[in-house]
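Hello,

Our lab assistant flagged a job as stuck in the queue for most of the afternoon. It eventually completed. Since we weren't sure the result was trustworthy after the delay, we are filing this so someone can double-check. Below is the sequence as submitted and the structure that was eventually returned. Let us know if re-running is recommended.
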Amino acid sequence: MKLATVGYENDTLPDVLDRLQRAAVEVVIDVRAVASSRKAGFSKSLLAASLAERGIGYVHLRALGTPKPGRDAARDGRIAEMRAIYEAHLTEPAAQMELAQAAEIARDRRAALLCYEADAAGCHRSIVAERLTQAHGFEVENL
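-- returned structure --
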């Protein structure tokens, strides 16, 4: 089973949509705590509509987003601190429930975890992908 991840930091919406289609993604799992964006096209409603036009589903799993202190740490380049904050966050019941939901979605359809950062290594989506891989054996592809 393959699981994709995608960040839109350096791309336009059409670029991301094209990349998702080339990778045969069937559903995007938005793992942002705040599903709004100053970057054109990436706020929740517009993103969901744009994905639907391409035949791609959309699910927002807010509890899998990074808490504000983790986002601040990542923004400042303190990736180890962000990881520690996020790992602690993943022990919370809401995050555990949505992690299980993400696994269920990704087992049924080709899924991509979406967040802002271009480099998956500096983004919490890589932690989500690691957890899903450990528990369910996904093969991760960073788009």
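-- support follow-up --
The delay was a queue issue, not a problem with the job. The result is valid. DSSP finds six helices and five strands in the chain. The chain has one domain: 2-142.
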